[in-house]
Amino acid sequence: MPWFVAVALLVVPIIEIYVIIQIGQVIGGWPTVALLIFESALGAWLIKREGRRAWNALQEATRTARMPGKELADAALVLVGGTLLLTPGFITDIFGFFFVLPFTRPLARKVLSSFLSRRIAAQLGGNPITGFMPGTFRPPTADDTDRAHRERAASDDIVQGEVIDPDRPQDKPQG
After folding, report:
1. Can you tell me the distance from the alpha carbon of 156 to that of 148, in angstroms, rounded to the nearest whole number?
2. Backbone phi, psi, residue 132, to 5°
3. Cα-to-chain-centroid distance, residue 55
4. Which of these, 100, 69, 64, 72, lies nearest to 84 by C-alpha position?
5. Helix, strand, coil distribution of the chain in percent, nearest 5
């Protein structure tokens, strides 16, 4: 388990309890409990609605043979956001709503995509052929492809020759 997950599992509940106590001192104990119950009920309804939407979008993408990148990211965000919404507390609910609400999810998806691309680049250490370097991403260009072909052509593993197909009339032996 990464160290930040262990720290989060220790620190987040302490912060949540502190915030709940502070809100309870301002608006009272029972209103605080009622607010937590209301947030959980609203979160459960929202998770059901947005989870169904994400599932339908994922099915539509696979049915039309499209790469479901956006749909998978949305499904993951709804799953994580739903878990945060069902966890009692105000701080986790703020993040949960940010991940689940349809008008904030595109921003969350952008943050997630940026985070994952930096993590992947750091793990891979960069690739000189594609230009995939830590902290950046750019698709391969024609120059990258030409360079890769020249490097392959210069290697000793290539055998020059001709492919002869006996089924083609021009490749059939005479006689």
Report:
1. 15
2. -80, 100
3. 15
4. 100
5. 70, 0, 25
Nearest to 51 by CA among 99, 95, 110: 99
C-alpha span between 74 and 54 (Å, rounded): 6
How would you write 17-70 as a 3-class SS string? HHHHHHHHHHHCHHHHHHHHHHHHHHHHHHHHHHHHHHHHHHHHHHHCCCCCHH
User: What's the CA gap between 71 and 100, in Å, rounded?
Assistant: 13
- 127 phi and psi angles, rounded to 5 deg: -135, 115
Joined tokens for residue 79: 């799953």
- Report the length, in residues, of the chain: 175
Domain boundaries, the chain: 9-153
For residue 169, CA distances in Å to 137, 161, 162, 163, 175 come to 48, 19, 16, 14, 13
Q: What is the mean pLDDT of each run of 10 residues along the chain (175 residues)?
A: 82 93 94 93 93 92 87 91 91 94 92 81 59 54 67 64 72 63
**Total-model pTM:** 0.65
Residue 76's SS3 state is helix
